[in-house]
Amino acid sequence: MAARRSAPTTAPDPNQLLTEEQFADLSGFGLEAVRRWRKAGTGPKHLLISSRWIRYRRSDVDAWMEAQTA
Fold first, then answer.
1. To 10 degrees, what angle do helices 20-27 and 31-40 make?
2. What is the rounded distance in angstroms from the CA atom of residue 56 to the CA atom of residue 17?
3. Which of 57, 64, 65, 45 is nearest to 14 (CA)?
4. What are the C-alpha distances in Å from 22 to residues 1, 4, 28, 70?
5. What pLDDT does 51 receive?
6. In a domain? residue 22
7. Chain center to CA of 62
8. Which tens digit of pLDDT belongs to each residue from 25-58?
9. Top-confidence residue, 9 or 68
10. S-S: 64 plus which of 44, 50, 56, 68, CB 3.0-4.6 Å?
11. Which helix (H) or strand (E) holds 6?
12. Percent with pLDDT over 70 in the chain
């Protein structure tokens, strides 16, 4: 009987650009909280691609989430 191999896990791309919705899903918080943090300047760094296109670099989100843990 052959042993089962698990699929190799790959680390997420640190340069991946996340939407506000993806950041909310990743953080476990709601979209309104994410927007509040951005407007208050307390969330991770964001990229303003246009007035309607806001993105978060995955590495910035991961660093910010790590800094929030006690």
1. 110
2. 5
3. 57
4. 41, 32, 10, 24
5. 85
6. yes
7. 6
8. 999 999 999 999 999 999 999 999 988 899 999 9
9. 68
10. 44
11. none
12. 87
* Inside any domain, residue 24: yes
Q: Is residue 43 part of a domain?
A: yes
CB 26 within 8 Å of CB 61: yes
| Domain total of the chain | 1
Q: What radius of gyration, in Å, describes the C-alpha atoms of the chain?
A: 16
Residue 60: inside a domain: yes
Q: What is the pTM of this model?
A: 0.79
**What residue type is assigned to position 23 of the chain?**
F
Tokens at 24, concatenated: 């909310």
Compute the 3-state secondary structure of the chain and give helix, strand, coil in percent, each to the nearest 5. Answer: 40, 15, 45
